[in-house]
Amino acid sequence: MTPRQKIFVDEYIVTLNASEAARRAGYKPRAAQSTGSQLLDIPEIAAAIRDALAARAARTRVSADRVIEELARIAFSDIGRVVDFGPEGLRLKPNHVLAEADRAAIAELSSRGKGRLHVRLQDKQRALDGLARHLGLYGLNAKLAAADPMERQRLADQAREKLRLAIERYAAEEAGKNC
User: Fold this and answer.
1) Could you tell me the pTM of the whole model?
2) Residue 8 included in any domain
3) Hey, which bits of 22-116 come out as E strands?
4) Residue 65: inside a domain, yes or no?
């Protein structure tokens, strides 16, 4: 690897953005997007990035599984496990009663005067969206991921039939050109 490519790798690890890493490594700003993409395709650079990311994950003990677990803790949090509701308002449950996951879901605790408590949990919707994206419940695969096994089989058969028809149509067009 060249010295500039090594800088690109170091900058990519910081930004996780190929264009920005290319600019920071001194490549021409106008060509940063294509240069960054081309650099990522070089096996030696791709391997260096993979190794550096793996080393960072090991060092910080942050993995995709750990991120997913944290999203799940927030996504499936329940305010009822954190506070008691009563005529006097909210009362925070004692710390020894709160599970670690429930404590992690708390975004804000504050007093609003005269013993009034304000509790705000982390954004459940955002966490649910993150989990749904990870599980393929959005986008092109949403139907497939959410379907029961029989529905998945029906969708697979339907896709195969579409592919067969497209291949036959292409073959017929090619045969017509060769006549």
Assistant:
1) 0.52
2) yes
3) 83-86, 89-92, 106-111
4) no
Contact 66, 57 (CB under 8 A): no
Question: Does 21 share its domain with 49?
Answer: yes
**Same structural domain for residues 117 and 140?**
no
Q: Do both 163 and 137 map to the same domain?
A: yes
pLDDT (tens digit per residue) in 66-92: 888 888 999 998 888 998 888 877 788
Q: What's the CA angle centered on 59, arms 39 and 6, to 5 degrees?
A: 25
C-beta of residue 20 within 8 angstroms of C-beta of residue 6: no
Residue where the block lists tokens 């949990």: 121
Between these two residues, 156 and 145, which has the higher pLDDT value? 156
Radius of gyration, CA atoms only, the chain? 26
What sign does the dihedral 50-55-58-59 (CA atoms) show? negative
Residue 172 CA to its chain's centroid (Å): 43
Domain residue limits at 43: 3-60
Instruction: Return all residues near 8 (Cβ < 8 A) that are at least 6 apart.
Output: 21, 22, 24, 25, 27, 36, 39, 45
Identify whether residues 44 and 92 lie together within a single domain.
no
Question: Band of the pLDDT at 3, cuts 50, 70, 90?
Answer: very high
Neighbouring-strand partners of residue 86: 89
Residues β-bridged to residue 119: 109
Let me know whether 74 and 119 are in one domain.
Answer: yes
State yes or no: pLDDT of 179 exceeds 70: no
